[in-house]
Amino acid sequence: MELVIGASGYIGKEFCRYFSEKKKPFLGTYFSHEEKGMEFLDLKDPDLRRLKTDLTQVSHAFICSGMAKIDDCKKYEDKSFKINILGTERIIEQCFNFNILPVFLSSDAVFDGKKGNYSESDRTNPITVYGEQKKTIEDFLVKQEKDFFIARLSKVFGVSKEDNSFLSSWKQDLKAGKEIYCATDNILSFTYVKDLVQVIDLALEKNLRGLYNIASPKSYSRFELATILKSKLAIGSGKITPCFLNDFDFLEKRPLNTSLNCEKIIKDTEFNFSRIEDLIDRINCYE
């Protein structure tokens, strides 16, 4: 059985959909958004033993929960510390106690964004509270000297209407004749959410362990990607205005180039990631 912690969130929900399609038994947990078939779990006081399932039958725990908004982690630092560090560490310890492999979703925010094309062996140096919290859990897992899987992610997106992704928002704003501001200096790797869950499942089936960057091989600035979207969808209205990332009123300075080198996961799984240019065309299918 698979355990999806944070199953009511964007990525957790996709894991549940994927396991359901593959007819893999799974249990999902929620905190603030109750959904049918899921069980409540509070990361401020997590206890997997409260779940109505036999934990000895659980093979993997996908840790998709936590506070993920960068500014909120800074603004509510004490709360985010309790959830993203203390709560997550407790879940990991409980996983090890029941011989469950923890699958932790980390972030490119563990890097300072000065060079880009970061590999798994590059030194981490976060400049935000959120990034520091992700780094803390990465380091915690490594120190346990037990099996784990860390999926280090960048920008995850979807193209269906219910995904409500940044691509859909750009499309809607441009078609409405609005001006959108997109940073030219913020370079990111992008991952289609369906690719994400599929490649992680494939990696686990191959018994891969350790740290993996997971993203499509090609990186873009937000300005580049918005320009591609406007052109491919033939949107004549609206305006894309270039700007710098830290022109925005963030609580903390943001890393600029956190693009990920994903050669390791591609080599070890032989997975072919979807091209974001091809997926943009599919947004027109959802109005």
Query: What do we call the CATH topology of the domain at 2-158 and 189-216?
Result: Rossmann fold
Total number of beta strands: 12
Strand arrangement, major sheet:
3-2-1-4-5-6-10
Helix amount: 25-40%
CATH homologous superfamily heading of the domain at 2-158 and 189-216: NAD(P)-binding Rossmann-like Domain
Q: Roughly how many Å is the radius of gyration?
A: 19 Å
What's the average pLDDT? 95
How is the main sheet built? 7 strands, parallel
CATH classification class of the domain at 2-158 and 189-216 = Alpha Beta
Please state the overall shape, judged from the principal axes of the Cα atoms.
globular
User: By helix and strand content, what is the structural category?
Assistant: alpha/beta
Describe the structure.
There is one protein chain. The protein has 287 residues and is α/β, with parallel strands linked by helices. The chain has a domain at 2-158 and 189-216: NAD(P)-binding Rossmann-like Domain (Rossmann fold), CATH 3.40.50.720. 36% of the residues lie in helices and 19% in strands. It has 9 helices and 12 strands. The chain has helices at residues 10-21, 70-75, 77-97, 129-144, 166-175, 193-205, 222-232, 263-269, 276-282; strands at 2-5, 26-30, 39-40, 60-63, 101-107, 149-153, 155-157, 179-183, 187-192, 210-214, 219-221, 239-243. It has a 7-stranded parallel β-sheet, with helices on both faces. Helix 1 crosses helix 6 and helix 3 (77-97) runs parallel beside helix 4. It starts with a strand and ends in a 5-residue tail after the last helix. The mean pLDDT is 95.
